[in-house]
Amino acid sequence: MGVVASSPDTDMILPPSDAEGVEGALSGLIALVQDDLTLCNQAIIDRMDSQVPLIPQLAAHIVAAGGKRLRPLLTLASARLCGFDTALAGGVPRHVHLAACVEFIHTATLLHDDVVDESRMRRGMASANAVFGNNASVLVGDFLFARAFQLMVEDGSLQVLAILSKAAATIAEGEVLQLATQNDLETPESRYLEVIEGKTASLFAAACQVGAVVAARPAEEEQALYDYGMSLGIAFQLTDDALDYAADQRKLGKTVGDDFREGKITLPVLAAFHAGDAEEKRFWQRTIGESDQTEDDLEEALRLIARHDTIGLTLERARIMAEKAKRALDIFPDTPLRRSLCAVADYTVWRAR
């Protein structure tokens, strides 16, 4: 089935009066789990160490490139939301090591993705593969995956191991599925959503779910946090896909139009293709379907995307998923942590403004 573009009022993604609160969402969440995050950052540094000097050098490069530590933050916050008591933990609390595990899985996938995509930038800096080469990036990514599984085993919970190992496998499946749909303009929207659920949202969901597991909360709360993370991750990736055609390069941290040049099938392109006339469809078939692009084609792609407001469509879909994420938390009491997690859901869309 085709994708039908609409023209939502993107200025109303959030009321203007909410902007300041949303922009401070991440800093607010960090403030609530600051002590845990400090321990998590130290655990990440400790576990990146190796007798092979290139491993910590390359790992430190991608860590230095920034990133908001959103996924490990979700693990820390979810555990706290569920009442996990660090005073009873002894030593480094479980949720801290699992948050580091989540970050290692994420970082490993970034290293591998940049090699597959032949990316030269990551968060405004030269990507690790651009600096150290493809071989080193792939192998250090493997090292970080191995470190993540060491942390899972040390945790000792088969349930945690099942959740995080399944997420790691699902991420790989999502990336392979994206490769299979590349350049295919007949990809249905349902398949596109399957890709982003796999490659992005599955780790968000697992990061949140294990917070409930370590706190020994009932299945209803575990499911609620899984649902929150899944919806949040979908909103996050939808917004990223919109930003690739709408953002300032310095803000995005990568070259704008990378998805276009790589022939990736994302909602802004799918919607523009299905909404276009015969001439426009021929343009998309040549540039995306056949990877036959000239220097001026990106500008034309941006014009067609703007003509059909498919950025607005994509951000509206992201807003709907962010609202779904917030509703998933209704099972929990109204606390600063719950409000902060809801603000993070809004932030995922608002960062496109």
UniProtKB/TrEMBL annotation:
A Pfam family: polyprenyl_synt
First-level EC class: transferase
KW Magnesium (keyword) present: yes
Known catalytic reactions: 5 isopentenyl diphosphate + (2E,6E)-farnesyl diphosphate = all-trans-octaprenyl diphosphate + 5 diphosphate
Cross-referenced SUPFAM superfamilies: Terpenoid synthases
EC number: 2.5.1.90
Keyword Translocase: no
Keywords of the record: Magnesium, Metal-binding, Transferase
Recorded GO MF terms: all-trans-octaprenyl-diphosphate synthase activity; metal ion binding
Cofactor(s) needed for function: Mg(2+)
GO biological process assignments: isoprenoid biosynthetic process
InterPro entries linked to this entry: Isoprenoid_synthase_dom_sf, Polyprenyl_synt, Polyprenyl_synt_CS
CDD domains on file: Trans_IPPS_HT
Family designation: Belongs to the FPP/GGPP synthase family.
Known function: Supplies octaprenyl diphosphate, the precursor for the side chain of the isoprenoid quinones ubiquinone and menaquinone.
Designated name of the protein: Octaprenyl diphosphate synthase
